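Thread title: Can someone regenerate the structure for this chain?

I was given the following input by a collaborator and told the matching structure tokens would be attached. They weren't. Posting the sequence so someone can regenerate them.
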Amino acid sequence: MNDTTLRRPRLISPTRPVTHAQHPSRRGLLAGGLGAAALAGLTACGAGGSASAGASADAAWSFTDDRGTTVRLPRRPKRIAFLTDTVGAALWAAGLRPVAATDSGQDIVTAVHPDWSGVAKVYSADKGIRLEALAQARPDLLVDAVQPDGTLQVTSQLSEVSDIAPVLGLSTYLPIETIAGTADRLTRSLGSPLADSDARTGYTKASTALKSAVDANPGLRVGFVFGIDANTLGVMNPKTWAVLKTVRALGMRLVPVPSGADNAYSQAVSWENVPSIPADLLVWAVSDPLPDNTLWKRTPAVRAGQVWKPDLASWYAYSWANFSALLDGLATHVHGARAGVGPRDAS
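Best answer:
Regenerated them for you:
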């Protein structure tokens, strides 16, 4: 498999254009690779404890986010705004209702079926966050996504939005259960009852089903791939993506990204090298449509019919219910796939 430029898929950029940089910014340190170690620091009321949903709304409030930044306010905030689709979907699914939110039109938010009545839409494709609309919503707290390099996704407008309200950052490059668990904790700390307790139980069952399927098919190698452009396919980096962090912890053998740093989204593979990807099962992610060219059809996993394409929103709508469906689908395809159909690893 040809080791070329490491790239990020083009699908999402609610607040700024996607860049295909290989190296993190000078501020980048958090990255997705912190994994479960970050969980211990993600407590409402800072590292020392968590706020109760029954706490007085007049009591002081604080929350330490995924950058390690603690936001402290004299009273619990009531008017919350979601600045990014991914974070918004997770919090909406958890039961937190915003006064303002973004929807970039990529079916990420709609995947969790939000009720938009009375909620200001503050995103525009040409300007990013509509600052005037955001200010008119009078939020007490803003919540944005943390990127693998540790910066907020709204970073290009950070000074302007910070003048409106303080900003919390939640990373979407941690394991699934960390992302959804943090959304639940933040929702509780803000005084909202959780709406997804049953979904969390369903996620536990789906995780167990996938673990059983992986254990029963230990030699199976799985590659998560997407289309970068007409000439290039991307292999998703197991060190970065939430789903891949979770399934690898369950024992799934993933196609590695050689020299893939924690903040590298993927390895770009030219089409002539796609048939040499050492995968027995291919999972098509984060782009449409499936390829329809000769080299794709010659790829051993494709010839064997061992390809699965979940719904596009599966990768970015960070809710217990959404990821339950994704893990259930993976369990079915892992159970039915045959190991050894793909080429051997180059090593």
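The first helix runs from residue 85 to 94.
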